[in-house]
Specification:
The complex is a heterodimer of chains A (336) and B (566).
Chain A (H helix, E strand, L loop, with lengths): L2 H21 L4 E4 L11 E6 L6 H10 L4 E7 L5 H6 L4 E6 L10 H11 L4 E4 L4 E4 L8 H10 L4 E2 L1 E5 L23 E2 L4 E6 L4 E6 H7 L15 E3 L5 E4 L3 E3 L17 E5 L5 H12 L3 H16 L9 E2 L3 H6 L10
Parallel strand pairs in A: 2-3, 2-5, 3-4, 8-15
Antiparallel strand pairs in A: 1-4, 5-12, 6-15, 7-12, 9-16, 10-11, 13-14
Helix pairs in contact in A: 1-4, 7-8
Chain B lengths: L3 E7 L3 H13 L4 E5 L5 H11 L5 E3 L10 H17 L5 E6 L3 E2 L3 H9 L5 E2 L3 E2 L13 H4 L10 H14 L12 E2 L5 E3 H8 L4 H8 L9 H9 L3 E2 L4 E3 L15 H7 L3 E3 L6 H7 L15 H15 L25 E5 L1 H4 L3 H9 L21 E2 L3 E2 L2 H6 L1 H11 L5 E5 L7 H6 L4 E7 L1 H8 L4 H23 L6 E6 H6 L1 H11 L20 H10 L31
Parallel strand pairs in B: 1-2, 1-4, 2-3, 6-10, 11-12, 13-16, 13-17, 17-18
Antiparallel strand pairs in B: 4-9, 5-12, 7-8, 14-15
Chain lengths: 336, 566
């Protein structure tokens, strides 16, 4: 890579850091319990809006897997999300009513919090509908993974987004608070993902799955990206460049092996397609606060009217991480 | 009187170290603990306090320890000296670390050692025979000097090694030493250990080893050869290393694996593996076994992990495996067959082939209108969509996905010059592809098409051009597929034999002879059609020398089989 381009990326990274600082001035501290964070603890960073119903299960899921502290940015929820989080002893909450879009879809806020509180911690950055599955996730907590990664001098861990969907129309089975969303949305596409390399940032560009199949048949290049690097041993100078798809410095994006081997990787189970989705899609379409002028939500709104069912006879029913590993969606690498 | 003593090297997870030290000490095994000097006072005091009620636990003088340096040997020396001096009854000294865990009751280990009172258990291999050194430094670790830390001053380390190589520097190995390497976790008898520590030449040896790289893997392993009467060249500690040279870690879910290994001590245990510590430090469940340690089962698990990390699964493209071109180690997951021109020449080729193979056969997967999956399905294995835009967004991945998704079931599909040609080059370079081409097959389809002749002429020229390009790709030196190419005329000379040959070459296809022929298109009039093309200035050379008198149609049915070669 040419020195000029390398330097360009360096400037870009600095720009993101400054931007994060600037945008973070709109953040209002609601509950700051970060004093309780101990050395080397696993932290979880989340931006959210109106996700009250999902929170109990979300917190339970990650607490059980070893997250010590949660840092939330609440983007002006009106459904009690903030109040609920403030009561939680292991959650710190910031509030803002500024534009989600103009803070690069929440990434500026998160970058700032990561810089302030994430330094030298393993940091997990997810949405409230993303659930990390990793090798041995049924028997080992996430700190087992991060200890191993650290001992292997690995700084970031890739986990592809896997869209889960129910059988039948997505409104057929309503989601109840505290319920495992994958009791309802337990199906997924096993093998229709297209992968391309992004030479600029060194990451892989993964698209496909049920969303591409159902909503982006005619313009697949607009289908949402599924590659994610949610788990990073954070250092002050790191920054997320585009959602959690790409990081800078670019070495952090190299979560794949180029010489035929397999690195360890996980999957983010995406519980987006529940009955809560139709309402959300309508609202987001109204708000126009999402990526590419909410093109994704536009496509959803149209697609959902015509054909609200993702299920095909080739859909796989989720069992456990070993199944995902056999299907080639994730890998143990050399972790045994 | 206790006959077995443990020397424990600790630098982190002191709660676990304390737990294990207490376990041994309470079972009448003296323990000498060495704590890394870089560890803070508070933690050291905590550990000392924790052990204060145990008389047979002692702390040795602390050294600053760093991986790969002499300090680790020095620490084990002082700790061993203390052990031999303070506990005269000890017959065997076992070197362990703070993250070791006993897997079998200590009495079993004691009995095992008592039955072999003069044996030293230490892995000690001549340098020629090891293959697990990092960075390719093998004999050189004894011949060069390594004053710089590999972890902290990698740059200086590398430069200094380079420099020594360039000037041809070689250290002299002291007389009486034959360099050996091995695992740093050993169990030595008092006689051997004290002989090494009290050797009159020890200062000379120590001075030499101070500048050897990773001396903790070679100091004891080399010197033991001078004194031991009986060496068992293996470590009693189960300790596995991965390809980066760092130890594998054991977790709760390894419980049964560790149980079945019958090893005495394992390293290294994750410090939060509560279930392992709980079950192995608890004597109540101890069953009586006298079996030899068999780490083989565990070896297999880790060997597999190593293979997955370095070779990966052939034909898999995913988020953490995306090989560079030519590094795929198998471009696709399984063999597959591609037919070009066959479904032009034969009217019912796909159903016929499907019956013949007893498997589903796809139509033209790369047809511009849609991916023609078997049975004209909208989606196929792995939820692959038939939508052409999705497929053409990345046709190579479409193909590799299909082959991966249907592992265990041979994929067969049609291809043609009218299709998307992009995957052609990929298939040609794939050793899993079996590609059979009848060039000029398109002429048969055009011949029967109901279209204006000028259109047909243009289309024929276009298809021929594309086909020639594909055939050239196939004939390129870099192509690795199993390739058969006939012109239409050549193929028609003995069609059934040619088909039979293709099927015979398919792995797993039935070996029986063809009994039923596919229905061939009516070719009467084709020579005239070809002549017309020529007359209009388009030379259909891909068809070959098609006889003017035409060819006899294939007889259908199984009754008369004149095409069979006996």
């Amino acid at each position: 890579m040419k020195a000029v381009r390398r330097y360009g990326l360096r400037l870009e990274r600095k720009r993101f850091l400054v931007r994060a600082w600037r945008k973070s001035r709109g953040l209002e501290e609601i509950a700051n319990r970060t004093d309780a964070i101990r050395e080397r603890e696993l932290l979880c960073f989340v931006t959210l809006r109106n996700e009250r119903i999902r929170l109990p299960y979300f917190l339970k899921y990650y607490r059980e897997r070893g997250v010590s502290h949660f840092l939330f940015v609440d983007n002006d929820s009106g459904d009690g999300t903030r109040e609920y989080l403030m009561e939680q002893p292991d959650c710190s909450v910031w509030w803002t009513d500024e534009s989600y879009k103009r803070s690069r879809f929440g990434m500026d806020w998160i970058n700032r919090l990561l810089r302030l509180y994430g330094h030298d911690h393993w940091c997990l950055t997810v949405d409230p509908d993303e659930f990390l599955v990793y090798p041995f996730s049924d028997t080992r907590p996430i700190p087992a993974l991060t200890d191993w990664l650290q001992a292997s001098s690995i700084k970031s861990f890739g986990a592809m987004l896997l869209d889960m969907y129910p059988k039948g129309p997505i409104t057929a089975q309503p989601y109840a608070e505290g319920q495992n969303p994958f009791d309802i949305a337990c199906w997924f596409d096993a093998g229709n993902y297209s992968i391309e390399r992004n030479w600029e940032y060194g990451n892989l560009w993964i698209q496909g799955g049920p969303r591409a199949r159902a909503f982006f048949q005619d313009n697949p290049e607009r289908a949402p990206a599924l590659n994610k690097t949610p788990l990073v041993h954070w250092q002050k100078h790191y920054t997320y460049a585009s959602s959690t798809h790409m990081l800078l410095p670019r070495g952090l994006n190299l979560v794949y092996d180029e010489w035929g081997g397999e690195k360890a990787s996980g999957v983010l189970l995406h519980a987006k397609f529940l009955d809560t989705f139709t309402k959300k899609a309508a609202e987001e379409l109204e708000r126009r606060e999402h990526y590419a002028a909410s093109a994704e939500y536009k496509a959803y709104a149209e697609g959902l009217r015509e054909n609200p069912d993702f299920w095909t006879k080739w859909s796989e029913k989720y069992i456990n991480w070993r199944q995902l590993e056999i299907l080639g969606l994730m890998s143990k690498g050399n972790w045994a | 009187m206790s006959t077995l003593g443990f020397v424990m090297m600790c630098h982190t997870a002191f709660d676990r170290a304390a737990q294990v030290a207490r376990h041994w000490a309470e079972r009448d095994c003296p323990v000498v603990i060495h704590v890394d000097k870089r560890v803070g006072r508070a933690q050291f005091d905590w550990l000392k306090q924790e052990m204060s009620d145990l008389e047979n636990v002692k702390f040795s003088k602390r050294h600053k320890c760093e991986w790969g340096t002499w300090s680790l040997v020095a620490a084990s020396q002082t700790a061993s000296e203390l052990m031999l001096e303070a506990f005269p009854g000890v017959r065997h000294v076992y070197l362990a670390s703070g993250s070791c865990l006993p897997l079998r009751p200590v009495d079993e280990l004691r009995a095992y050692l008592a039955a072999r009172p003069m044996t030293d258990f230490i892995e000690s291999v001549t340098i020629r025979d090891v293959d697990w050194t990092i960075d390719g430094l093998n004999t050189e670790r004894f011949q060069l000097r390594f004053p710089f830390s590999w972890k902290r001053h990698r740059f200086l380390f590398d430069r200094y090694v380079e420099f020594q190589r360039r000037i041809g520097f070689k250290r002299k190995i002291p007389d009486g030493l034959a360099p050996h390497l091995g695992s740093q976790w050993w169990c030595l008898s008092r006689q051997t250990l004290s002989a090494i520590l009290q050797d009159p030449k020890r200062r000379e040896f120590d001075r030499y080893f101070k500048l050897v790289w990773i001396p903790d893997e070679s100091y004891w392993q080399t010197l033991v050869r001078n004194y031991s009467r009986n060496i068992e060249s293996r470590s009693l500690t189960l300790s596995k290393f991965d390809f980066q040279g760092k130890p594998h870690v054991f977790y709760d879910d390894h419980l049964h694996l560790l149980r079945r290994s019958d090893c005495f001590v394992a390293r290294k245990i994750w410090h939060r593996a509560d279930r392992l510590y709980q079950s192995f430090l608890d004597d109540s469940g101890a069953d009586v076994r006298r079996s030899e340690p068999t780490p083989g089962k565990i070896d297999r698990v880790f060997a597999k992990a190593l293979e997955r990390r370095t070779q990966g699964r052939a034909g898999l493209y995913m988020q953490s495996r995306y090989p560079n071109n030519e590094w795929e180690n198998g471009k696709t997951a399984a063999p597959y067959s591609v037919f070009q021109g066959f479904n032009d020449l034969f009217l019912d080729f796909e159903p016929w082939l499907s019956r013949r193979l007893g498997a589903s056969v796809h139509g033209n997967l790369f047809d511009l209108k849609r991916a023609r999956f078997a049975g004209d399905a909208e989606t196929y294995a792995g939820c692959l969509s038939a939508a052409p835009e999705l497929r053409d967004y990345n046709p190579e991945r479409f193909l590799t996905n299909l082959i991966w998704n249907t592992r265990g079931e041979r994929q067969v599909f049609m291809f043609g010059p009218q299709d998307n040609q992009r995957p052609g080059a990929f298939m040609a370079g794939d050793s899993n592809a079996q590609i059979s081409v009848i060039t000029g097959g398109w002429a048969v389809r055009l011949f029967t098409a109901n279209r204006n002749f000028s259109d047909i002429r243009t289309e024929a020229a276009r298809l021929q051009r594309r086909e020639v390009e594909f055939v050239n790709t196939l004939r390129h030196v870099r192509s690795r597929a199993e390739i058969r190419i006939w012109s239409l005329a050549e193929f028609l000379e003995e069609p059934m034999e040619n088909l039979q040959r293709i099927l015979d070459a398919m792995e797993g296809a039935q070996a029986s002879r063809l009994t039923e022929a596919p229905r061939m298109a009516d070719l009467s009039g084709l020579p005239k059609f070809l002549q017309n093309l020529k007359n209009q200035g388009m030379n259909p050379f891909a068809v070959g020398d098609f006889p003017q008198e035409g060819v006899a149609p294939l007889p259908a049915g199984a009754d008369n089989r004149p095409y069979l070669v006996r």
